[in-house]
Amino acid sequence: MTSEKAQSLSLERRVANSLNFHLTGGGCPTNGSLGECPAVYETYVRDDGVRYCYAHVYIWTAGKEKNLKASEVARWVEEAGGFVDTISHHLYDPGNFVTDGICEDGSLSWLVEFTDKQISFGDAP
Fold first, then answer.
1. Distance separating alpha carbons of residues 107 and 56, to the nearest angstrom
2. Can you name the CATH fold of 3-123?
3. What residues does each domain of the chain span?
4. How far apart are CA 26 and CA 96, in angstroms?
5. Interval 38-72: pLDDT, tens
6. Model pLDDT for residues 67-111, shown as the tens digit of each residue
């Protein structure tokens, strides 16, 4: 995909593409994948137009064995044009079968929060 065509995609699509490329090698997730990013979406738009988005990332066994770091995931979001605010690890979410930080299938569930513009702490809503 050309850089011009990639830039015409929404930020959410660019981030999803980047994360899934790095986690799965660009194809459908397989047993050897580091994980997957099944959902990216906008959550909030400030009055000044700054957009806040979430990406849900599941780290699978291969990712845990590789010791995949949140800083690597942040770099992949930034490569796609996003600015990472926080990356959180879900510790307890019974609706998604997460107990004590582990999903029922053994994966880790991370929430990546990012914006479309770089902000400083003094700029937060």
1. 12
2. STM4215-like (3.30.2000)
3. 3-123
4. 25
5. 999 999 999 999 999 999 999 998 889 999 999 99
6. 999 999 999 999 999 999 999 999 999 988 999 999 999 999 999
